[in-house]
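tool_call: predict_structure(chain=1)
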Amino acid sequence: DVPDDEIVVYTGETRPDSRADLWTSARVVVATPEVVENDLVGSRIDLGDVVHCTFDECHRATGDYAYTYIAERYHEQARDPLATGMSASPGDDEESILTVCANLGIEGVEVMTEDDADVADHTHETSVEYERIELPETVLAVRDALQAVVRDRLTELKKLGVTNKTAPDVSEREIQRIQGRLRELMDNDQSEGYEGMSLLAEVRKLRTAVTYAETQSVESLRRYLDRQQEAARTSGASKADQRMVSDPKVREAIRKAEEYDDLHPKFRRARMLVAQRLGIEGGERVIVFTESRDTAETLTDFLGEHFETRKFVGQSDTDGSDGMTQRQQQDALDAFRDGEFEVLVSTSVAEEGLDVPEVDLVLFYEPVPTAIRAIQRKGRTGRQTEGAVTVLMAEDTRDEAYFWKARRDQKRMREELRSLKSVAEQIEAAIGGEQADLDGFDGNADEDDGDDDEAASDDQAGLEAFAGDDAAERAEPAEDTVERGASDSGEPGEPGTAPTPSADAEDAVAVVVDQRELDSSIAKDLSRREGVETRLETLAVGDYVLSDRVVVERKTVSDFLDTLTGGDERSMFEQVKDATRYYARPIVVVEGTDLYGERNVHPNAIRGALASLAVDFGASILRTTDEDETTDLLKVIATREQEEEDRTVSVHGEKSSKTLAEQQEYVVASVAEVGPVTAQSLLAEFGSIEAVMSADADELQAAEGVGEVTAERFREVVGSDYDG
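tool_result:
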């Protein structure tokens, strides 16, 4: 047994330096994947001594999810890697299951169902009911008006030759195809590509609005359309935003939605089901799942009039909604478990990976389109006693399409698992490769029982038997960049010795990455590069420090244009000004392909900004097409600076404080998002913030660059009563 003091748990709330110490001293670490990923990227920890790595909810190991990166680094660094994945929903089909295994370096599969003795004692019967909800004529009229605009825009795209579909229920797959064809046109510098992208952006927004109307509630739709109208009024509004909200049919939909004052039938039915479970049947807890944060908030308010109800949403902030901190999430779950409230209204964040207590009813406000998510939601009940699941479906809407898709996926998943289990029972396991097996695992990296290359069990087949001749290639873990089993002393697996790194740290070039850049893939990609060592810090100046004289400010095209339209809280020019104070060679990397076409910004304004960065601030402006090219560029510059120029990495600098004039400009620019240029014009005309705020709409138009729309919007923000 491992003593309790050698088992540590940490999350993102644990300080990075504390995490490094805990990692070194502990024998068992339980941590969130994002934290482990960040510590690997920041070179704070090493996986060389890790003898076993377990991935809970392993079906997440696809794409850019942290599991994929952690597993890759684990198989590179560990001397004797052993990975285990666990999931109640491994994938909808054979290919997805094999993808997870390949991404985690897993070479054998054990399938267990409710019929297995080890599982049967821990599961109970769960009833699943589906209820069809008829939508009112007014709601259908709102939907039809929006769909008519979708059809119009698809017709325009058809004229451009990028699709032959005009039906408003066009699939997401077709949307992706259209986008790919438009990108080809843009790559060839054809104007039709840019025109089509604007139309496609409109289609996406309208499809979201249709989804709100069909499957959520009119109140949620109103919130969404209000945000679109707000966005269209800003100085940096896209053509798609402006065109959409000004379309007569969209205006008609907005009017009908605003006039609708009845209760949505899904709300009414949800209230009845919750009342029946908690009141008549004496239940204690109910979870209501919904796809939309807007719906989660309105439904929480509605159910809160009758039951003790709280919402549960993710940590990120969205338009019009603040996220929950990790502490707030944990407090909500603890209170739910302790019976402080009866109903938890949650978005998808509570579907898996959280210790959500057993509930009496799981209510799907709408069906979900994947088997994995349906299974995860269902798993919140029926663990200790019989459970119940009810799914609400709006008739003749995408709710029904999602229902049938999830049902087909679940059936296919069960068939795939039965097939895999059947093969496993019939064929003797012959799992090769370098990964050890659990039977021989005793927790000590320095002992070799000699059976690592034998089958994991006598009746468990490997993936090769399940998938065919090419499975071994697909399920093969990432090829090691270091020789496993060799320590610094030359003896295999000797305890207490440092693991062999993938690149000699003394010879590696260093790149210091700002913590806020972890939203992109660049830091992870740099950490994978041979000869590069990444460090994570909260930088006061810049995004990447490549030497004592080179700092890089990275701006996507959207970031760059936000600065010009007042959408960026801290001006790019302020950031570059700070960079020039502390680094001799500041660089601005503008990442993306459509600098002049993405927004409704005059090309001369963009050219002027680029010229100012170069001439006024002495910054080098470099363009890249995507994150991959940015990664390559950063490595080249860091290598040139540190190896060819023999310079060292030095982090220094601090943000400069705003002058009084800059603070005044910032205050005015934030009102109605008029932007910095218009703010300067207003202050020059009126002389003070107080005078600007006191001016009426006609007086405001005396300032250069202020028209009737901007003036009225400005007065609306300044003069309206606060309704927070």
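agent: Confidence is low (pLDDT under 50) at residues 424-434, 441-503. Proceeding to next step.
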